[in-house]
Amino acid sequence: MNLRLSAPRARIRLCVVAAVAALITIQASQAIETVAQNGPVAVSVRMDPETPVIGDALHLEIEVIADPDIELLMPEFGEALERFKIVDFVPRERLDSNGQMRARQRYTLRVPSSGAHQIPSILVEFVDRRPGKPPAPDGQDAYEVLTDPIPFTVESVLPEAAAATLSPPLGRLEPLQSPTTPRWPWVIGVLLAGLVALPWVARKLRAIRDQAAVRSAWEIARTELDELLTGPPPDKENIDAYFVRLSGIVRTYLEARFGVRSPELTTERFLEAASDSPELSESHQLLLRDLLLQCDLVKFAQVVPTESTIQDIIALAGRFIDETQDQPTSEEIQ
User: Are residues 46 and 144 in the same domain?
Assistant: First the structure.
């Protein structure tokens, strides 16, 4: 019996593999790509999908191929992409099998609206360190490679064939027939049940409110920050996770203390939302900007801080939380 079923199963597996390969080929063909080159450096910018629908994530890849003796100056995080919302960013550098340096930046973007858009021109600079070659053009610091912009259109979720005019209103609805049985017994029963349950509901709400007020936003943030400070110092492998936790403590504190909603916001958007809070002074906004930007340098730009720098950043977070904690009113003190 097993021998008879092995051939159909093998054919089914081959069909599945062929379907997956065809799907990958179709998706790859939907990407838009532009390439630019200057001497030993080639830059390609690739975006997919080619025709996104509003709400789709855009995948943007900037790849630079150069000789190993070339010093590459890749674009800064988010450079020229201010009009998009950056959801994810992954930089990477490696040597390929031919000994060429490959530097890559991958972005996941969100487009704010449908219609015509474009990926702006991407600028990559480099210094030629090869023997006998001028490192840069006369009077300049580095060579430049500038790609062409990539225009694209974000489709609306509304079908093209949808009618642009509104239909006329329908006629009047006929009035409902009055119930034959009176409603007042039911109304009285509901009111009596509500009066009976009212004390229990009030006690329940009071208990929930008292439990929520046991620890303030400052106490929670300070406890987590002290645990981070007294814990083992991070090494190179978990330095990213360490600063993700540190920035998360500050973001969660701001959400609970000032009502600033932080999920899926980039640092710049989060700082803009925090600046709208009337309780957050200008000096504290500058302190917050300095703190979160230092965390981003470690998380996204792969900067490895020293142990003393880590302690200074944590102390900066503690200072911000302590100076902005909610002070009790005179009635609460009494």
Answer: yes
